[in-house]
Design brief:
single chain, 343 residues, mainly alpha, ABC transporter involved in vitamin B12 uptake, BtuC, two-stranded antiparallel sheet, 15 helices, 2% strand
Length: 343
């Protein structure tokens, strides 16, 4: 019995992701030895931090059976809002960042409201939200005295410096990511709210009969996703030292891939934060390693798209094999019962 439990723990999906991550490091290190330098490897997370941060909380959305493809647009809206509030309205940079965080939460709340209270398909709502928030970002840009193609720069050093800070050689963005993993893990897996999120995805009607306000829970997951997108926008603006409306436009595919590859079902009811975090690292390291190996950045979405297709297909096949296995087991039990009756 103990041996069976150990095998189950060793052969979890997260273990496969760890193996895949190690293989990537070995392969890309062989292609470019500079890739294996700790400073380069740890610093690479700066390039895909947005994917890591947002994917953690989009996991909540998918577990409820929802979908969120608007997060990238909220990143751009957050970034340009910070620049406009600081440069053109004279607001303190941290106050501007806080207000932008609230804007992200409101964006998530708006889309979450329509998903939860009108029963419109989440894909349709968040697709509309994607166009709406990217359009608002462009409108905000037009309010600024700076040309949109230039972006807003010249931020205070204490704002741009926090994303470049290192503690014992570890970048601050890695520390932020680790802190968010702990926070999201505790929220999803160790609280009553997290159990409600899972129940909404497993059986919404049953969750309602259990006294759970499923509409509020579903809406709250979009709020969390919007906040995480705004947080990613703040970090990205600080790291690059520039605010632009088009930041995040290429993030939708990697984010959804990270969540699905991490083991979260696109049908809801199953998933986890640790798997998403590992999958986000797998995707980020893959993109970074391929670019260091000389692949044109225009083609980096090709392997990510393949990963998404393979992940969905694999999860579907494993789910079907489990269903077939349980069906065969029931047929065997019925056969045994019939033989006992005839005897």
């Amino acid at each position: 019995m103990k041996l069976t439990k150990i095998k189950k723990k060793l052969w979890r999906w997260e273990t496969s992701l760890v193996v895949l991550l190690l293989l990537e490091i070995v392969v890309f290190g062989a292609l470019n030895p500079r890739f294996l330098k700790p400073r380069v490897l740890l610093g690479s997370i700066n390039d895909f931090m947005s994917i890591c941060v947002i994917a953690l909380f989009v996991t909540f959305v998918l577990i409820t059976g929802g979908m969120d493809i608007q997060a990238g647009s909220i990143v751009g809206l957050t970034s340009i809002s910070i620049g406009l509030l600081w440069q053109d309205f004279g607001m303190n940079i941290w106050a501007a960042a806080l207000l932008s965080l609230i804007i992200g939460a409101l964006c998530g709340a708006l889309s979450g409201f329509f998903v939860a209270y009108t029963d419109v398909q989440p894909m349709v709502v968040t697709l509309g939200g994607s166009f709406l928030y990217s359009g608002l970002a462009i409108a905000v840009t037009n309010l600024s005295a700076t040309e949109s193609y230039k972006g807003i720069s010249g931020f205070p050093s204490y704002f741009t410096g926090f994303s470049k800070f290192r503690l014992l050689g570890v970048p601050s963005q890695v520390l932020i990511f680790l802190a968010l993993i702990v926070l999201s893990y505790l929220l999803l897996h160790k609280t009553k709210y997290g159990r409600s999120v899972f129940l909404c995805g497993v059986n919404r009607n049953a969750a309602e009969y259990s006294g759970i306000n499923t509409r509020l829970v579903m809406m709250s997951t979009y709020v969390l996703s919007g906040i995480s997108a705004s947080l990613a926008g703040i970090i990205l603006t600080s790291y690059l030292g520039t605010a632009k409306a088009d930041f995040g436009k290429e993030l939708t595919l990697p984010i959804i891939t990270a969540v699905v590859l991490g083991g979260t079902s696109n049908l809801g009811g199953r998933g986890g934060v640790i798997g998403t975090a590992l999958a986000a690292l797998v995707i980020g390291i893959m993109r970074f390693g391929l670019s260091m190996a000389g692949l044109n950045t225009q083609y980096l979405d090709i392997p990510v798209g393949l990963l998404l297709i393979v992940a969905v297909a694999f999860r579907g096949l494993t789910g079907r094999s489990k269903w077939l296995g349980s069906l065969l087991q029931k047929l065997r039990e019925r056969g045994k019962n019939k033989s006992k009756v005839s005897a």
